[in-house]
Amino acid sequence: MNLKITFHNMPHSDPLEEHAHEKFSKLAELLAHTHEREPVHAELWLKANKQHDHHAVELHIKSASLDVNAHDEGPDMYVAVDNTMDKMLKQVKKEKERSRDRMHKPDTEKRKFER
Length: 115
Known about the structure:
alpha+beta; 3 helices; four-stranded mixed sheet; Double Stranded RNA Binding Domain; 115 residues; single chain
């Protein structure tokens, strides 16, 4: 799985990119176990504001069975990246639990009728 990082209104920063990849690695492990047979695309947008110190970070993850977004804003870009990754990790875990619950639902009358 690849992470595409886009910098808006700011120059490319290798330390910030390395930090984002480091934080994304934990999320990538979870996604690899959950969606191992389907390609997963991840995009991270780092947006700096030129008027004031209020930066925004957005993360979008898309696969055949998963489509989630997370974002955070704040004065420190590194903290915003950390918060965004944490929010995404919670969303992916929640989605994983939902799909597991759907698979293990007991047979209902409607399901028996569909067979």
